[in-house]
Amino acid sequence: MPIRVHIIDDHDVIRSGLRSMLETAGFVVLRDAATVEGLVDAAIQDRPDLVLLDVRIGDDDGLAFVAPLRALSPPVNVLLFSAHDNPSHEARAYADGANGYVYKSADFQKLTDAVRRTAAGESLWERTDQRRLTNFVKASKPGVGEHAPLTPRETEILIILASGATNKDISKQLGISAETVKEHVQHMLRKIGVTDRTQAAVWAARNGLV
User: Fold this and answer.
1) Rg (CA), the chain
2) H, E, C per residue of 31-82
3) Percent of the chain at pLDDT above 70?
């Protein structure tokens, strides 16, 4: 029985290319969509073997749909697809139970192999990735009864940081200096009890900020 796939990507050319590539390899593309609207309902209706999901879909966060898809019974296999090497995104994907994370630069063989393995319910995370990301996730869990008294500005910066933005990006977006951003980031990391930006992004996701 052929592997059945849903493709979610907001770029028409990439989505069309993925469909052509996967169909050439013998997969069946049940749906391809440019938005996340109805994504979970479509998965419930079609029961695809996997959802190939872009990390960013327009202004929407594809990562936010990993946990709902994995929470279905039976869980839907999810393979994240991204143009960017972003440790924050990888850590969130791993923490929420995605089967794997593949880059858009992957060649035909690597992509189709990842799709086959994901459809079979395998985890694509290497052992080194698992150790690294597990440490990020552990460090990003709030303690029992723990509260992080972030200021509104720190919270704003944390939300933007969780998208993978640099201090320079944040300074441009908020109209403040990069040095001010750096100070806010340092204070914020200390308050939530993590040591780096990736852990902060996972903390933000686990605490409903992104």
Assistant:
1) 18
2) EEECCCCCHHHHHHHHCCCEEEEECEECCEEHHHHHHHHHCCCCCCCEEEEE
3) 90
Two structure tokens written together for 163: 């998208």
Q: Which domains does the chain have, with CATH numbers?
A: 4-125 (3.40.50.2300), 152-206 (1.10.10.10)
pLDDT in tens, 90-133: 888 888 889 999 998 899 999 999 999 999 999 998 765 656 66
- Rounded Cα distance between 96 and 89, Å, is 11
Query: Is it the case that residue 138 has pLDDT exceeding 60?
Result: no
CA distance 75 to 78: 9
For the record, the structure tokens of 102 come out as 């593949």
> Which ranges of the chain would DSSP assign to H, the alpha helix?
12-24, 39-46, 66-70, 87-95, 108-119, 127-140, 152-161, 167-174, 178-192, 197-206
